[in-house]
Design a protein that fits this description.
With 189 residues, the protein is an alpha+beta fold. It contains 6 helices and 7 strands. It has a 7-stranded mixed sheet with strand order 1-2-3-4-5-7-6, sandwiched between helices. Strand 6 and strand 7 form a beta hairpin.
Length: 189
């Protein structure tokens, strides 16, 4: 399968919306995302424009969204990375507040036809490489993510990629009974 990994551009909000809506219809979306298709599909275009611009190369530098794109322009998959620092005002997207400078991987999705082709590995290599290169007063010390305890497909990939369960379990918002596990990849040396 021929594809390239790159950061999205601010003007690609329609493609970003399309891929997100498809992700939210995946059979395990209820385990993987904190948003439903029903909520996302009603969001105005301005929401998608702002979200895409913020995660683009020209965005604020605190978020990056990577895509795997075919030569024909079809997006096969995506992953987003959020910068989290202990001294940030405004809190954290999900889970516990950071105690070290870190990034947080979210929004992972690969279209069914691209699963098993190496797309997810390439997306994660780009996300981790970008994380280690984030500038600031202090370097990024770790990359974290959360995975639902029943999402075995995702959990198996994260372990294979080198992420390790920290032992932390977080109650999923609004669930009362479902937990996500925190996984991390710590900077070597």
């Amino acid at each position: 399968m021929d594809y390239a990994i790159r950061v999205i551009r601010a003007d690609e909000w329609e493609k970003a919306r399309e891929l997100r809506l498809e992700a939210l219809q995946d059979p395990v979306a209820h385990l993987a995302f904190l948003e439903t298709y029903e909520d996302a599909v009603t969001r105005p275009d301005a929401f998608w424009r702002e979200r895409t611009a913020g995660a683009s190369e020209s965005g604020n530098g605190r978020v990056r969204q990577f895509v795997a794109e075919t030569p024909e322009g079809r997006w096969l998959g995506t992953v987003s990375v959020l910068v989290e620092r202990p001294d940030d005002e405004g809190g954290v997207a999900f889970g516990e507040a950071p105690t070290v400078d870190q990034t947080h991987v979210v929004g992972v999705f690969v279209r069914e036809e691209a699963r098993g082709s190496g797309v997810i590995d390439a997306l994660f290599r780009a996300a981790v490489e970008w994380s280690w290169g984030v500038s600031g007063v202090r370097p990024i010390e770790r990359v974290r993510l959360y995975v639902h305890e029943e999402n075995k497909r995702a959990e198996a990939f994260y372990r294979r990629f080198g992420f390790v369960w920290t032992g932390v379990r977080v109650l999923m918002p609004g669930s009362g009974t479902d937990y996500d596990r925190e996984y991390e990849l710590v900077r070597a040396g």
